[in-house]
TrEMBL record:
This is RBP10 protein. Pfam families: CTLH, LisH, SPRY. The lineage of its organism: Eukaryota, Metazoa, Chordata, Craniata, Vertebrata. Residues 1-147 form the B30.2/SPRY domain. It comes from Glaucidium brasilianum. Residues 277-394 are annotated as: Disordered.
Length: 543
């Protein structure tokens, strides 16, 4: 303080540049008294915007301060009230604002002074420090250094109070109602994500009703697994087989899937490029981009059969029979004849009603084996990053496949191996197919632009996907995060929601809507300045 300090008119205050966030719940700062100067007429506290800064904090309306010369607290008045001890050189004074109950208290050298002062429920209070006599020097700490007072313990105390209030929320006589509602929410969540066996078992135990047919659930489950395995082309074909017209009526979804398929071709996981990889004779007969949707746990559980002339083949995720292609509104982005002639095409019966097929092993498979296969499909996975099979013990968590992926078409596919990641699995023919696919994808983008106008999202998706080709190592480049398997999840969720919506079913499960509503309520509480929202996190109740 460089002033004269002859009387109170020489006092001056300084406040922080930003107000205390109303939604932070509890706010704390400390001020170290470097030197008390001549008389130690110092004040530490809070003030609202517009308060006169030529006075010590606490003397004017909407101003609050704890003064060091007499230990009094001033609350919007020139008359102070005894509060605590005086403070001088070397002391550390803290000010804690509790926006949950609109109180504040001060600390000295790490100890709470214990008396709570009530603040009016107003926002935009600023930390403030005032000085009056020459030589007074203070140093403020807003968290850039460890605090002397254990504010974390105080925050834990209030977090526990808020969480206890939530847990003790009175339900009254509606317990049965709530329980039935929660059971239905859990059941619909399991059905939405395709956990067919789990949903069936849960419905049997809780006596709830599943609105969707089991066959439909399993079809969606298999399509999701294809996407999560990086085999987007097969997922597109399966969708067109099972839900004709769905993608043609959802051009944005179709374009998203095609862009993701291009990324998976770069990654070497899409069947369009995997079919070029070197395989043993056994794997060549069983894999060529086959849209097999169930894991192969032995021949008794296989759904794969040879196709006739009218059967659709896996051709970049688009039905290759003329009868199917003739109804397509957009370019098919189909494979060239040379790329699909390396092995005989194969197809799949997606309907559970067609599960009895032509092989002897399938004719003799029992119902129990079929149920076991379906259960294993939900929990087992395989991962093909860049054509390399990786085993992991990670399982499905909250509807998300972590590090493991699915759809083992043949045990011999485990023979594929590569010492390091390479573009399109390191196969030249696969790289050429990927480039051709990219040209066709560009044509699709231009067609959509002509029909629906410019779409910035489409443009960004296409640019991001094509940008992978600008780097010798796409996995370690600025846009390499696209190759992370976790990026498949939003695409999978969008396709699953579109399928449900096409069947007049909710595109989002009620459980997710409830969680979204709770999160939105917390955001609204933060906007209106209800500090308790800072200690009520939805994530705390999901584990």
């Amino acid at each position: 303080f460089p002033g004269h300090g002859k009387n109170h008119k020489d006092a001056a205050s300084v406040r922080a540049t930003h107000p205390i966030p109303a939604a932070c719940g509890i706010y704390y700062f400390e001020v170290k008294i470097v030197s008390k100067g001549r008389d130690g007429y110092m004040g530490i506290g809070l003030s609202a915007q517009g308060v006169n800064m030529n006075r010590l904090p606490g003397w004017d309306k909407h101003s609050y301060g704890y003064h060091g010369d007499d230990g009094h607290s001033f609350c919007s008045s020139g008359t102070g009230q005894p509060y605590g001890p005086t403070f001088t050189t070397g002391d550390v004074i803290g000010c804690c604002v509790n926006l949950i109950n609109n109180t504040c208290f001060y600390t000295k050298n790490g100890h709470s002074l214990g008396k709570f002062l009530f603040l009016p429920s107003q926002s935009n209070l600023y930390p403030t420090v005032g000085l009056q006599t020459p030589g007074e020097i203070v140093d403020a700490n807003f968290g850039q250094q460890p605090f002397v007072f254990d504010i974390e313990d105080y925050m834990r105390e209030w977090r526990a109070k808020i969480q206890s209030t939530i847990k003790r929320f009175p339900i009254g006589d509606r317990l049965g109602e709530w329980q039935a509602m929660l059971q239905n929410m859990v059941s619909s969540y399991l059905v939405h994500h395709g956990y067919c066996s789990t949903a069936t078992a849960f419905a049997r135990v809780t006596d709830t009703t599943i609105q969707e047919e089991q066959t439909s659930i399993k079809n969606r489950q298999r399509i999701q697994k294809l996407v999560l395995a990086g085999r987007v082309g097969e997922a597109i074909e399966a969708t067109q087989q099972l839900y004709p017209g769905l993608l043609e009526h959802n051009p944005n979804l179709l374009f998203m899937l095609k862009c993701r398929q291009f990324v998976e071709m770069v990654n070497g996981t899409d069947s369009e490029v995997r079919c070029f990889s070197a395989r043993s004779p056994r794997s060549q007969d069983s894999y060529p981009g086959s849209p097999s949707l169930s894991p192969r746990h032995g021949s008794s559980n296989s759904h794969v059969h040879s196709t006739g002339a009218d059967s659709p083949t896996c051709s970049n995720g688009v039905m290759s029979t003329k009868s199917k292609q003739s109804h397509s509104k957009y370019p098919t982005l189909s494979s060239s004849s040379s790329s699909s002639s390396s092995s005989s095409p194969s197809s799949v019966n997606y309907s559970e009603s067609n599960s009895t097929d032509s092989t002897k092993s399938q004719q003799h498979s029992s119902t129990s084996n079929q149920e076991t296969s379906d259960s294993e499909m939900e929990m087992e996975a395989e991962h093909y990053p860049n054509g390399v099979l990786e085993n992991s013990s990670t399982r499905i968590m909250n509807g998300t496949y972590k590090h493991e992926e699915i759809l083992q078409t043949d045990e011999s596919s485990m023979e594929d191996s590569c010492p390091q990641r390479q573009l399109c699995g390191g196969n030249h023919a696969a790289t050429e197919r990927m480039i051709q696919f990219g040209r066709e994808l560009q044509m699709l983008s231009e067609q959509l632009c002509r029909e629906y106008g410019k779409n910035t999202m489409h443009k960004k998706m296409l640019q991001d996907a094509f940008s992978l080709l600008a780097y010798s190592d796409p996995w370690n480049c600025p846009v390499g995060q696209q190759l992370d398997p976790i990026q498949r999840e939003p695409v999978c969720a969008a396709l699953n929601s579109a399928i449900l919506e096409s069947q007049n079913l909710p595109k989002q499960p009620p459980l997710m809507l409830a969680l979204g509503q709770a999160s939105e309520c917390l955001r609204l509480m933060a906007r209106v300045g209800l500090g308790s929202c800072s200690f009520a996190r939805v994530d705390d109740y999901l584990h």
